[in-house]
Amino acid sequence: MHISLDGKIVAIAGATGGLGPTVAAVFASAGATLSLVDRDAAKLDALIASLGAPPGKHHRATADLADAEQTRAWAEQIRQRYGRVDAVLHLVGGYRGGQTIAQFPDADWALLKQLLIETTWNVVRAFVEPLKASGGRFILVSSPQAQKPLHVNAAYAACKAASETLILALADECRGTGATANIIVVNAILTPQMRADKPDADYAQFTAAEDIASAMLYLCSDAAANMNGQRLSLFGAR
Ligand SMILES: NC(=O)c1ccc[n+]([C@@H]2O[C@H](COP(=O)([O-])OP(=O)(O)OC[C@H]3O[C@@H](n4cnc5c(N)ncnc54)[C@H](OP(=O)(O)O)[C@@H]3O)[C@@H](O)[C@H]2O)c1
């Protein structure tokens, strides 16, 4: 299925992480104009250069998305520049785990709450009204741990569950507006860099970044206009 996003404005939070560059490349190839945000300006510049678009086509902003004010400022830049936003892809992540609940460090609990819950809350709040106005899309990437936690991932699972709940609440608020909010669920992401670094590793439980980007593109297409508040699992066949 060919999906064109010509004329669409797509905001990508956490754009320079593991998944972001693949998603940015797929959405740029589909014709979207991107607003990319992350914390490192040099990485954002390198990512925009890699997209090979005419200068000025894509926008980038540095922001700490755990900070509500900085997150709102990014949304405001998009409003001033484009007057609309058609999709928000929330890719901010990070992982801590591997200990029992009693052993898990307090600092890591605080970090995961910030990375996974606060950034989601801030991005949802900054973009809910523009997305309702445009009939746009919000997509979160989550983990099966949110539904079926292991004790060694208690903190990560709890934070992902909280962020999923925010998206389901957003989906409820979007109902009737034309906007949608959905969750893509993967065990682990296989990036092009990982494949290049260790081509012979066993990635059977991983989902390729390209497949996640394709699912996101589908969720942003007209064909998915009636899909709201869903968890799409992109694993389980192997
Ligand atoms: N990787 C996996 O196997 C996996 C599995 C299941 C679900 N997920 C989810 O899939 C999504 C994408 O995963 P990923 O591996 O690409 O994530 P990631 O690389 O860990 O993070 C994505 C980007 O978010 C940025 N970021 C972190 N905190 C930020 C903040 N406060 N403000 C602005 N940017 C911030 C990171 O920048 P810094 O480099 O500065 O930290 C990084 O560039 C995440 O939501 C993740 O939870 C991933």
Automatic annotation (TrEMBL):
<dbReference type="Pfam" id="PF00106">
    <property type="entry name" value="adh_short"/>
</dbReference>
<dbReference type="InterPro" id="IPR002347">
    <property type="entry name" value="SDR_fam"/>
</dbReference>
<protein>
    <submittedName>
        <fullName>Short-chain dehydrogenase</fullName>
    </submittedName>
</protein>
<dbReference type="GO" id="GO:0016491">
    <property type="term" value="F:oxidoreductase activity"/>
</dbReference>
<dbReference type="InterPro" id="IPR036291">
    <property type="entry name" value="NAD(P)-bd_dom_sf"/>
</dbReference>
<comment type="similarity">
    <text>Belongs to the short-chain dehydrogenases/reductases (SDR) family.</text>
</comment>
<keyword id="KW-0560">Oxidoreductase</keyword>
<dbReference type="InterPro" id="IPR020904">
    <property type="entry name" value="Sc_DH/Rdtase_CS"/>
</dbReference>
